[in-house]
Amino acid sequence: MITVVGIFDNVHLAEEASSYLLGNEFTSENIDIHTHGEQTDEHNRIGDFFSHLIDDERQAMHFASLGRKGSIVTVHAVSAREAQEAADALNNYGAIEVNAEDDSPSHSQMIERIVADDKRLRGSYPVK
Question: Domain segments of the chain: what residues?
Answer without folding.
Answer: 8-119
